[in-house]
Specification:
The protein has 218 residues and is of the alpha+beta class. Helix content is 33%, strand content 28%. It is elongated, with a radius of gyration of 27 Å.
Length: 218
């Protein structure tokens, strides 16, 4: 074989290696982009996102339906129509600009949902109402939950137990939550999966309303 043929083979081999390396680099970039997109989706819907959970404190046995419905203003079956807003509630000691410190925003987020009341068991709420859930994402994309209660799902049907509107929130400039019903996390936003589950929950809560257990006096 001539020297010219050898040079051509070597050139072709180098060109093939360059093409192969370029293809490997492109595959790596595409994989990284796909991972980033997946991370964004996971962060938005709450799966795989950084998470902070707080525990609520109650002056009565919150897991006793009789005490819960006595304390509540409304008990109803409702379907979540839409997520309508979200914001952050300052905690004690918070000052403006403090959200820039640390990995977690020190304010607690809440999320607003529009809910269609399908069956009222207690209270005046009816039609389309706005409720507040003390769960949501902070300014850094960290999911904050109360009692590990996940975000409500648009289109989902729930047995809701709510309190409010919270008139005190409108009078406190550090509590910018709107005047709307506030859902009881975990114990007052129970997912309903099917007609049998709905009948069972409605029966249980109707019975609890008929046997309301007043919270202990403070």
């Amino acid at each position: 074989m001539s020297a010219g043929g050898t040079d051509m083979d070597a050139t072709s081999s180098r060109r093939a290696r360059r093409i192969l390396l370029a293809l490997l680099a492109l595959c790596t970039v595409l994989a990284l982009c796909a991972g980033a997109i997946g991370l964004l989706i996971a962060t938005r819907d709450g799966s795989g996102a950084s998470r902070v959970s707080a525990q609520a404190s109650w002056d009565f046995p919150i897991d006793d339906k009789r005490a819960l419905v006595d304390w509540a203003d409304d008990v109803f079956v409702g379907r979540v129509v839409a997520e309508t807003g979200h914001s952050l509630i300052p905690v004690d000691g918070w000052t403006p600009g403090q959200e820039g410190d640390g990995a977690v925003d020190p304010r607690h987020p809440y999320t607003l949902f529009e809910v269609e009341v399908g069956e009222s068991l207690k209270g005046p709420l009816n039609g389309l109402v706005t409720i507040r859930q003390d769960t949501g994402f902070d300014s850094r994309g960290v999911l904050h939950t109360m009692d590990d209660d996940p975000l409500l799902v648009v289109g989902g049907t729930y047995l809701f137990v709510t309190k409010g509107p919270d008139a005190d929130a409108a009078r406190n400039p550090l509590q910018p939550a709107p005047e709307c019903a506030r859902v009881v996390n975990k114990y007052g936003d129970i997912p309903i999966d099917g007609l049998d589950a709905r009948r069972r929950l409605v029966s249980e809560f109707r019975a609890a309303i008929g046997e309301q257990l007043p919270p202990p006096s403070l």
